[in-house]
């Protein structure tokens, strides 16, 4: 169980930088080193924020390998390995383990609407194929299915199921899951705005989109509340609240890429069907970054 305790704090759901339609390896490596220097507690490449739906399998593998190579063990890497095809999820998870990932993040199968038993068997297949921790990603607004606390509890009995990234936006879930599985079941918020409240109910951290743009503030907030200092956490939250709103006005990864472009870190190129943020949203993001003290 000790190996699972390292997934704590602010874990950045990394964007994948592009240049002229291809992976921008130099920008991605620079982003990773900057994230670690700024205090991020972990990195999550090729989740939805990393534009996994529009990466080829070769690109997906490459992004995972680059992230692990650049992080050099300084922080844990939880590689995105989700699919609505169980065979594909297994293949991605097996690759991530071979590449040296510390864990994998596996989303509930989207669009094809499996039953609770179908979800159990999907995650059991990934569990049986690898030997590293698995974080369940439960995001009903996007996948249309909601993994029940009962199904999660059954899965937690398997050797590699370690916790959940919870994007249900239902704060009662933290307490219910804690009651069902105990404090060792890792609970990571999947929503930036409610992460502070999530921590108060027993959460262990946040897989954060906004941490792309504000890694130090997000890490400082998590470090404070992990020590029980919610007053400091609230002060930081007051600085971040407009940014939490602004980044998600349009698809969050486009918002995060826009913020990173304003910081001179990466270009804001995205792949269709997503588009760059519109100028009005760009202004809102910029104003929020000024409010947070990230730019003048």
Describe this structure in words.
The protein is an alpha/beta fold. Helix content is 47%, strand content 13%. Helix 6 packs parallel to helix 7. The termini are far apart.
**What is the gyration radius calculated from CA atoms?**
18 Å
> What is the mean pLDDT?
97
Number of helices: 12
Helix percent band: 40-55%
Give a short account of the largest sheet: 8 strands, parallel
Low-confidence stretches: none
- How far the N terminus sits from the C terminus, by CA atoms, comes to 45 Å
Strand percentage: 5-15%
Strand order of the largest sheet: 4-1-10-9-8-7-6-5
Report the count of strand segments. Answer: 10
Q: From the helix content, strand content and strand pairing, which structural class follows?
A: alpha/beta
Secondary-structure element series: EEEHEHEHEHEHHEHEHEHHHH
Shape: globular
Could you give a short description of this structure?
This protein has helices at 25-37, 57-71, 86-99, 116-129, 140-143, 149-156, 172-181, 195-200, 215-226, 230-247, 252-262, 279-292, and strands at residues 9-13, 18-19, 22-23, 42-44, 78-80, 103-107, 134-138, 161-166, 186-189, 205-208. It has 296 residues and is of the alpha/beta class. The model has no long low-confidence stretch (mean pLDDT 97).
Q: What is this structure's SSE topology?
A:
Elements: E1 9-13, E2 18-19, E3 22-23, H1 25-37, E4 42-44, H2 57-71, E5 78-80, H3 86-99, E6 103-107, H4 116-129, E7 134-138, H5 140-143, H6 149-156, E8 161-166, H7 172-181, E9 186-189, H8 195-200, E10 205-208, H9 215-226, H10 230-247, H11 252-262, H12 279-292
Parallel strand pairs: 1-4, 1-10, 5-6, 6-7, 7-8, 8-9, 9-10
Antiparallel strand pairs: 2-3
Helix pairs in contact: 1-2, 2-3, 3-4, 4-6, 6-7, 9-10, 10-12, 11-12
């Amino acid at each position: 169980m000790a190996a699972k305790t390292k997934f704590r704090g602010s874990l950045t759901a990394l964007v994948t930088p592009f240049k002229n339609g291809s992976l921008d390896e130099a920008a991605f490596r620079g982003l990773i080193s900057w994230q670690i220097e700024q205090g991020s507690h972990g990195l999550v490449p090729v989740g939805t924020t990393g534009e996994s739906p529009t990466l080829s399998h070769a690109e997906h593998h490459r992004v995972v390998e680059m992230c692990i190579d650049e992080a050099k063990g300084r922080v844990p890497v939880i590689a995105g390995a989700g699919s609505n095809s169980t065979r594909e999820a297994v293949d991605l998870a097996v690759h991530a383990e071979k590449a040296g990932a510390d864990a994998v993040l596996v989303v509930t199968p989207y669009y094809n609407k499996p039953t609770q038993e179908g979800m159990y068997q999907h995650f059991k297949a990934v569990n049986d194929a690898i030997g590293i921790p698995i974080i369940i990603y439960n995001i009903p607004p996007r996948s249309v299915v909601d993994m029940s606390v009962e199904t999660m509890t059954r899965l937690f009995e398997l050797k590699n199921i370690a916790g959940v990234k919870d994007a249900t936006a239902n704060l009662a879930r933290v307490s219910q899951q804690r009651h069902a599985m105990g404090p060792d079941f890792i609970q990571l918020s999947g929503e930036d705005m409610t992460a502070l409240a999530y921590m108060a109910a027993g959460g262990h951290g946040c897989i954060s989109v906004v941490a792309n743009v504000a890694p130090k503030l997000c890490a400082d907030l998590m470090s404070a509340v992990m020590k029980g200092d919610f007053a400091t956490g609230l002060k930081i939250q007051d600085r971040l609240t407009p940014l939490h709103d602004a980044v998600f006005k349009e698809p969050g990864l486009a918002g995060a890429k826009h913020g990173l472009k304003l910081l001179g870190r990466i270009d804001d190129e995205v792949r269709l069907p997503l588009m760059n943020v519109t100028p009005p949203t760009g202004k809102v993001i910029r104003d929020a970054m000024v409010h947070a003290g990230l730019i003048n």
